[in-house]
Design goal:
By secondary structure, the protein is of the alpha/beta class. The chain has a domain of 90 residues. Helix content is 42%, strand content 12%. Strands 1-2-3-4-5-6 form a six-stranded parallel β-sheet, covered by helices on one side. β2, α4 and β3 form a beta-alpha-beta unit. The chain starts with 11 loop residues before the first helix and ends in a 7-residue tail after the last helix.
Length: 218
């Protein structure tokens, strides 16, 4: 690439407007599965490992989604349960039967589902209840000031209670400090992600961490 490494925020909106997002999503899914296969063949991961892959809301209306995922999973001999598809809360704001059907088909294929950026768009709770999700991911906007902001703590507590009631794993995003992690732990959040735990790494660097058991749930 002529511009070097780019942050997704710098090109995702343009990719969406230009109609390239479906192709980009499919490319990312295939590359991720290929990498997961490589790590599996090298003995770096087993079937308890989960790789999360984001999927744009528009893809849920793509009639070719199910077949594409099935082909890639078969090509790289991937256990579907090792893949977690992350959809944003925005995907659930409208009551679209195509979205509901697509989510059901993903679950039928054996993949895990997570609702990402939860709490930002006030998705209908009835929709959330009926989505066959495995996890809720609390948007980082509620984590950034959680140490000093009582309202953010109240919202996070509410999401944790919702996740518990629906038997969903709840993950806090954007954790950057030990103080944030401590507050989240005190509130009952058992899972988190963010720069406190590590920065994005190349496949080779990640493989090194996997070899020493430094990646995963601890």
């Amino acid at each position: 690439p002529m511009l070097g490494l780019l942050n997704p925020r710098s090109f995702m909106a343009r990719a969406d407007r230009s109609g390239l997002l479906p192709k980009l999503d499919f490319w990312v899914f295939e590359r991720s599965c290929r990498q997961l296969n490589a790590w599996s063949m090298a003995g770096r991961v087993n079937d308890s490992f989960t790789m999360s892959i984001n999927l744009a809301p528009a893809q849920l209306s793509n009639p070719g989604l199910r077949d594409h995922i099935a082909r890639v999973i078969e090509r790289y001999d991937i256990d579907p349960g090792m893949i977690q598809i992350e959809i944003t809360e925005h995907s659930l704001v409208t009551d679209d039967v195509r979205v509901t059907k697509a989510l059901g088909e993903l679950k039928e294929q054996g993949l895990r589902l997570a609702i990402d950026d939860f709490g930002t768009l006030h998705a209908n709770l009835d929709r959330v209840r009926n989505v066959p999700a495995d996890a809720l991911k609390i948007d980082m906007s509620f984590v950034t000031n959680i140490v000093d902001n009582a309202n953010d703590r109240a919202i996070v507590t509410a999401v944790l209670n919702l996740g518990s009631a629906l038997d969903l794993k709840t993950v806090a995003e954007g954790i950057e400090s030990t103080d944030q992690a401590a507050v989240l732990t005190e509130l009952g959040c058992g899972f988190g992600q963010g720069f406190l735990y590590g920065n994005p790494r190349s496949p080779d660097a990640t493989a090194h961490l996997l070899a020493y058991g430094l990646v995963g749930e601890h």
